[in-house]
Amino acid sequence: MLHRARVAEVGQDEAGAWARTDDGRRFGADLLIGADGHRSLVRRAVAPGRPDAEFAGYALWLGVAQERDLSFAGRWPGGLDIRDSGDHVLLGYPLASADGSTEPGERRLGWAWYDGTRNALFRRLGAVRGSVSHHSLRATDLDADVRDGLAREAASRWPRPWRDAIADSVARADFVGTPIAEYVPEHLACGRMLLVGDAAHVPTPMTGRGFGTSLDDAEALARHLRDVDADCVPGALLAHEAERLGPARSLVLSGKGFSSSFSRSA
Ligand SMILES: Cc1cc2nc3c(=O)[nH]c(=O)nc-3n(C[C@H](O)[C@H](O)[C@H](O)COP(=O)(O)OP(=O)(O)OC[C@H]3O[C@@H](n4cnc5c(N)ncnc54)[C@H](O)[C@@H]3O)c2cc1C
């Protein structure tokens, strides 16, 4: 078992596939599964003509606030609350406490704020370069002016208790901003290499199905690899691709309508 090692390079020949870690170790096997997320290194080998997920033209701010930290005495939300306000969409959702309690005072509020107006900020801080989303921003990566601006905008744009939850997350500098990426795959398999999960398909989180589809990939792959000899691995991976490419493409395309209506060019 190998933990906390970064794969720096992958490759294959007719007999097997290999990965080299950034500390110089080389691991060989009959096949190599790229489950390495939206910025997949393995995708560079499987789909060299289109290796990168593309910036979708908007960002998502995410945070969670504790009920006990909010001065909100109104009616607790009963479920998902979606608010649409032009270049902004807010998803607010009540959550149990970290240990599962739904007792008043113990609960939490999660918030997810889609923002089409701060792309220039993500570019200035290097989170988006060219057409590629590189990384998320932590609250502590942001100037106080930017954080205060978010809290002020939340106060004017969103109703309680969501604006209270956002103000609390901003005051604690405990939230993240993610430049949203998308990737519609054309291939999943190449020889003895295969992509699964976000390496294979990157949908907007608005679909709410990225995780579940990744689990479906894993279940299908287990079936296709059951009792397969080393010589038959490339054929088994092609059979997996034939089953999973359609659902992978549908997943990402199902979010494209939202993205194209919400995307901003800056
Ligand atoms: C903001 C946001 C909100 C989301 N909300 C939802 C939701 O509500 N519902 C839903 O179903 N899905 C949601 N998703 C999507 C969901 O998170 C992903 O689909 C899921 O995490 C994909 O799992 P994965 O294992 O393929 O990739 P990841 O979870 O990205 O895991 C990839 C792993 O590979 C590792 N890795 C990457 N490169 C290397 C390397 N070179 N060497 C070694 N290790 C490496 C990473 O460190 C990471 O541990 C959301 C995504 C985002 C960004």
Q: Topology, pairings included?
A:
Blueprint: E1 7-12, E2 17-21, E3 26-29, E4 32-34, H1 42-46, E5 54-66, E6 81-85, E7 88-95, E8 108-115, H2 119-124, E9 128-129, E10 132-133, E11 137-138, H3 144-157, H4 162-171, E12 175-182, E13 189-190, E14 193-195, H5 210-225, H6 233-262
The structure holds flavin-adenine dinucleotide.
Flavin-adenine dinucleotide (FAD) binds at residues 6-7, 35-37, 41, 60, 62, 178, 197-199, 205, 208-212, 214.
Bound molecules: flavin-adenine dinucleotide
State the low-pLDDT regions, or none.
Answer: none
Largest sheet: 6 strands, antiparallel
Large-scale geometry:
elongated
Multimeric state? single chain
Q: What proportion strand?
A: 25-35%
> From the helix content, strand content and strand pairing, which structural class follows?
alpha+beta
Number of domains: 2
- What name does the CATH topology of the largest domain carry? D-Amino Acid Oxidase, Chain A, domain 2
Tell me, what is the CATH class of the largest domain? Answer: Alpha Beta
Summed up, the helix count is 6
The total of beta strands comes to 14
Which CATH architecture of the largest domain is right? 2-Layer Sandwich
Amino- and carboxy-terminal Cα gap = 44 Å
Q: What is the string of helix and strand elements?
A: EEEEHEEEEHEEEHHEEEHH
Strand order of the largest sheet: 6-7-8-5-12-11
- The overall pLDDT, averaged over residues, is 96
Return Rg in Å. Answer: 21 Å
Kindly state the percentage of residues in helix: 25-40%
